[in-house]
Design a protein that fits this description.
4 helices, about 170 residues, two-stranded antiparallel sheet, mainly alpha, flat
Length: about 170
């Protein structure tokens, strides 16, 4: 860089530093006397009980938990698919040995690719299957919890329902 470019950059920086912030609201030419007094409208949300506020927080957490477990179920399902494909390709690299010729415990004769891909794919598929079961159960539980919170929230907003009380033989709230 030359001295002139450095000096120019410093000059622009100094001017911008002293200029201060600028906004479009400062460039208005209409005075406040011409526009009249400012009118502010205040609105407020319906009053909620502290219990409803906590239920809203719990509902958001339940939605997040449900989304995470759904993502885990999708991920483990994809892992199971990939593991199954790898195991299938590894199995295609093997051939079955007739029981008469097999004097060992191995009934499959695999080349090097089959020896690697079959156990690897089986392991991935097996672990992903366990993950699918676990995350599927967790998704059901988290969705149940979310529905319970939504039900409690609806009940707190609308009150209790009219029910028939068998011992007293009357309608109760």
């Amino acid at each position: 860089m030359t001295r002139t470019s450095i000096a120019g950059t410093l000059m622009v920086a100094a001017i911008c530093w002293n200029a201060g912030p600028a906004s479009a609201q400062q460039s208005s030419t209409i005075s406040e006397a011409e526009t009249g007094p400012s009118i502010s409208i205040a609105t407020s949300a319906p009053k909620q009980s502290p219990e409803q506020n906590w239920l809203q927080v719990d509902l958001e957490e339940a939605r997040d938990r449900s989304q995470r477990t759904r993502n885990a179920l999708i991920g483990t399902s994809a892992g199971f698919l990939v593991g199954s494909i790898i195991a299938g390709v590894g199995l295609s690299q093997c051939q079955e040995v007739p029981k008469e010729q097999a004097n060992t415990y191995d009934t499959l004769l695999c080349n090097n690719a089959g020896k690697v891909m079959l156990p690897l794919g089986g392991t991935i598929a097996g672990l992903s299957f366990v993950g699918m079961l676990t995350s599927g159960i967790m998704l059901g539980v988290s969705n149940k919890r979310k529905r319970e919170i939504q039900r409690d929230l609806r009940r707190s907003q609308y009150g209790r329902r009219l029910q028939w009380d068998i011992p007293s033989g009357a309608f109760v709230f």
